[in-house]
Amino acid sequence: MKAYFISFFYAVVVLSAFCLVARAQNGKPPVVVIPGITGSQLVNGETGKTVWFSLNLGNELGDDLRLPMFPDLAQNRDTIVAKDIIRKIELPGILRVFPDTHVYDRGIEALVAAGYAEATWENPRAEDSFYVFAYDWRRDNVESARLLIEKIEAVKTRLDRPDLKFDLVAHSMGGMIARYAAMYGKTDLPAGDKKPNPTWAGARHIERLLLFGTPSEGSFSAFETLVRGYRIGRGFLTFDRMSKEDVFTIPALYQLMPYGESALVLDDQLKPISVDLYDPANWRKYGWGALGNPKFPARLTDAAQTENHRSGRGTKTVDDQIHAQTTRAQAEEFLRAVLRHALKFHQALSVRTPTSPIETFIYGGNCEDTLSGVVLIRNDEKGTWETLTAPRGIKTAAGRKISKEQMKKAIYAVGDGRVSVRSLLLGSATFRAGATTTQPGFPVKSTSFSCVQHVNLLNHPKIREQFLTILGKPVEAKPIN
Predict the structure, then answer these.
(1) Would the pLDDT of 235 be above 90?
(2) Which residues are the signal sequence here (predicted)?
């Protein structure tokens, strides 16, 4: 009888393990859709007012988006929260004559057509489902990666599925968040001069990683935004914009700046020069961003007053008071901290790993001129520097003429208009006779390129067909430890 019960016990254990494996095979793994920067709707958590994307015609300042500026980045919080990813931008009123802008809705529609049902983090389901990861894209990407893992862990707990793994479909900066989550889990960046060491702590939650236009080596579009500000549309059709003072406060933008050999800086003869984008001294020297304006603190005060007038509040909010009291010294201390943190973030993602426990697939565009460098020009008469982020004809200090076409060739590369092929592959790309030969800088299952712009990668029919095929492939059953 004793032998019988022992045999029965082992049979139950084996059968339970088999059921766990079989259950993992029954249906497709759940998918998490991770948008890029500006791809999540942000609302005021107290009033419910949408602050991004607002569709306010001619909106001059996105003042509500400014974060406080303390060197401890985790301290810089406000009342804004992420509500949903931006699926489609529908133009109001008479502007309905213009076509709507599809952001992530067509990618989501493709998932639904393929048999996936949308679940929520609060009401989860396992197989054949997808979740959207809306996050505050202004904040530190390490913090967003931690939040992603926490949400996944909460779903697994609610479903009582410790074996469950997710496929991550990540666009643009969302891919950097996904990669960090996979490589380091919920671990913060190392303190001091300690080197990052990938533990792949997030791999136990992730089956496959699909990256769409992810700037693994950064993007000069982010640097240009920090230097000049950001707007959507032009002229009368400017729907929303962020001033240089607004974007100065956003840590995630600094983490999107070019890194390594992709951080190409040229002199007026189009020769590479050594300029560290992560050195705050260079931001002062070249007048980059909001700190290049000597009236920077006053602009913060004016912005707070403008927002109060526009909203009808009449008095300053706590956030307005913080901005109005920000000194130049505090802003410079914040800049040092945010640049140092951004550099460490890039170093963490750039660790070369010969193998990976996660299958990674890369999708990108390869037919658009993409900003991949800047030119610095010295004005000796004024004693100032000009940073060129668009090609134009110039005359060097020695009197030599540089044509617009020459500059275009020097500062543009092949990409999707925002992210170069080189950055997409972490610095490993060569070009021969118009063709692209690629060797990714980290383990990748496959790469796929199409003639498509950055914002349309998930909407492109060919790419949709490819990634749905990958998601539909059965996952090899693995024993549960």
Answers:
(1) no
(2) 1-24
Asked if residue 266 lies in contact with residue 187, where contact means CB atoms within 8 angstroms, the answer is no
The DSSP-derived string for 275-300 is --TT-HHHHHHHT-SGGGSTTHHHHH
Give the SS3 label for residue 75: helix
Pull the structure tokens for residue 299: 């602009």
Sign of CA dihedral 197, 199, 201, 205: positive
Residue 347 DSSP SS3: helix
> Closest Cα partner for 244 from 278, 208, 206, 295?
295
* pLDDT value of residue 481: 36
Judge whether 415 and 366 are in contact, CB under 8 Å. yes
Asked whether residue 310 carries a pLDDT value surpassing 80, the answer given is no
> Checking DSSP bridges between strand 31-34 and strand 166-171, what pairing results, if any?
parallel
Chain position carrying tokens 């079989």 = 22
Report the DSSP pairing between strands 129-132 and 31-34: parallel
Q: Alpha-carbon torsion 333, 334, 335, 336, what sign?
A: positive
96-103: which pairs have CB atoms within 8 A and are 24 or more residues apart? 102/456, 102/459, 103/35, 103/39, 103/455
CA distance 373 to 187: 32
- Residue with the bigger pLDDT between 314 and 289: it is 289
Q: Determine which helix (DSSP H) or strand (DSSP E) holds 176, and give its type and residue range.
A: helix 173-184
> Average pLDDT of 312-321?
48
Q: Which residue has the tokens 């926490």?
A: 150
63-79 per-position pLDDT tens digit = 478 899 999 999 999 99
Read off the tokens for 251: 């840590």
